[in-house]
Structure formats: C-alpha cells, structure tokens
Amino acid sequence: MSLQDEILRINDEINRNRELLLDPDLSLLVKDEIAKLEDQKKLLESSLSSQTAVNKNTETSSQASITDRAATMEFRPGAGGDEAKIWVGDLMRMYLRYCETIKLKADLIDEGVIKISGVYKGRSSPGEDRPFQAGPYGIFRYESGVHRVQRIPKTEAHDRIHTSTASVAVLPEITSSEVSINDNELSWAFSRSGGPGGQNVNKVSTAVRLTHIPSGLVTSVRQERTQQQNKSIALELLRSKLWEMEQEKTLKTLGQQRIAAIGRGMRAEKIRTYNFPQNRVTDHRINKSWHNLDSILEGNIGDIIQTCQREIPGITVQSAEESPLNS
C-alpha cells in the first residue's frame, strides 16, 4: 500500500471514530484513538512530502544530465528532390563548422548522421572568470524540426526560386538502464562498409543495419573498423530513437499549447526558413529573423541557437550578454 493510500485509509478511520463521539460511554476512548490516528497521519504526510521532494529533485537532476550528454543529429531530405539532398549537405556542413568553432567533436556515423561529443567550456561572459559548460544535446536540442530553404538551385535553367526542405532530429545519448531493448525484438544485417578505412572495412562485413521489429525503427552504422563497435553504436542510436518516440507520445497527450510551452521541435514541425533572395533566416517559433545568411551557412549560428534557447517559451537560459554559445 502506498503512503497516499495509507493516509486515505486513516482519514476514513478518523471519520468513522468521530461519529462515535456522540456516545458518552465511548467518547473518551474515541478521542484518544482519534489523537493517535492524527499523529500517524501527520507522520505519513511528512514522509510523503519528503518522498515527493526527492522525486522532483531526481527528475530535475535527470533532465539536467540529459542536456550535458553527447548528441546524434540526423539529416533527411524532404520535399524538393535533388535540391533537398543538396540542402541536407549544406545544413550538415553548417553544424559541423559550428562544432569546430566551439571545439566539439563530430563523427560521421552513417549517411546524414553525425554524433557530437565533448563539452563546451568557457567563461560565462567576456571579462568574467565564472566558468560555464554545456553538452552537445543541451546546445543543439532545439534545432530539431524542418528547415526550409528558398533559393534558385544551381541546376535551375530559368532562374526560378524553388522551395526545398530537410528534417533535422537531435537525439541525446541514452543508456541501457534508461531504455531496455529485448534482443528478440532486434533484426541485424551486415555488409561491407566500402570507402576509406583500409582493407578491413572493404573486405569484412563491418557495416551494420539494425531494425527494431515492434516499432520499425532502423539504424545504420559504418563508422568504425569493426562490426562489434558498429553494433554498439547502432544499439545506442536505437535507444535514443526509442526515447524520442516516447517523448513525442507524451507531448502529444499534453496538447498543442503545452507542446509550444515546452518548446520542443518535432521532426514534422517547420521551425526555420532560409530565404536566399531576401538574405534572411527566420525562426518561426520566436518570429525572429537574421540577415546574414551566407555567414550563417558558414557555421556562424551561435546567435541563432542562443536566441532560440533564450526566447522559446519554457526555456530558462542566460541573457544574451552572458551567452557562451554565441560564437
């Protein structure tokens, strides 16, 4: 029986005893019994209050630790055909250059998938020695969603502006203790990685493709030189995808207003437009624009990332002057 159930049970017993107070032969005994029950109730309520506080602290700590973790970014072309595929490459290059700027490590896991690790360390603001650090997921988590580009493709013969899209998913590193996966629900396929890496990756089936049968989720990894290493990375990525799936289910049950307050960008949500004719980048969640598009695509996205983290409802971060991400 839970503490809350026990408190309810004692409440019922107190109410039953109070009905007996009208009996003069029992009133003294009943008063003593009620006093004892009230004391028990207070002790249980105190324990329940302490337990609730611990649970809240644990939840807050868990959320904080999530933002400190490594992150995987997935880039997928959307509407726009070949131009959408080119746009995916442009976005990946933008984020990779930004990672170089803030000294985070980025590794290619598979086509359109990179893993970002390390910790950004620096001062909280110019002229101050107060340290600040942030993990990859904490930095990039609000980049999830659909990124739309409006420009004239290089292959366009009539100078017509095309609109193309790419989706970006940002996933935190999730441990096996947080998301358990039944081995019987997994289907593995192996192939040769090909490309650079020496004879091992070209002659041995080191590349892996992992399918989670119940959900249909698929992860592919060809980064490492051995099959076992790639299997480990594939499992890690699958845990992150399953975690994201559960997060999105939870958000959908909360309703659109609550989703907006949380500020989490889902894969299908259009979050940003890159308009080349107007030299403008607009984030639709905060209705704010920047007019240095070429520089942004070269990796100078610190101001965008920091501004979104500061202004999207429900996010509490440092002020613009204190931003360590504005590089």
Topology order in helix (H) and strand (E) letters = HHEHEEEEHEEEHEEHHEEEHH
Figure out the total of helices.
9
Q: Which CATH C-level class of the largest domain is it? A: Alpha Beta
Give, in spatial order, the strands making up the sheet with the most strands. 2-3-1-7-6-11-12-13
Biggest sheet overview = 8 strands, mixed
In terms of quaternary structure, the protein is single chain
Would you write up a description of this structure?
This protein has 9 helices and 13 strands. With 327 residues, the protein is of the alpha+beta class. It has 2 domains: 61 residues; 255 residues, Alpha-Beta Plaits. The strands form 3 sheets. The chain has an 8-stranded mixed beta sheet with strand order 2-3-1-7-6-11-12-13. Strands 8-9-10 form a 3-stranded antiparallel beta sheet, covered by helices on one side. Strands 4-5 form a two-stranded antiparallel ribbon. Helix 1 packs antiparallel against helix 2. The longest helix is centred in the N-terminal third of the chain and has 41 residues. About 13% of the residues have low confidence.
Structure described in brief:
The chain has 327 residues and is α+β, with helices and mostly antiparallel strands. The chain contains 9 helices and 13 strands. Strand 2 (105-110) and strand 3 (113-117) form a beta hairpin.
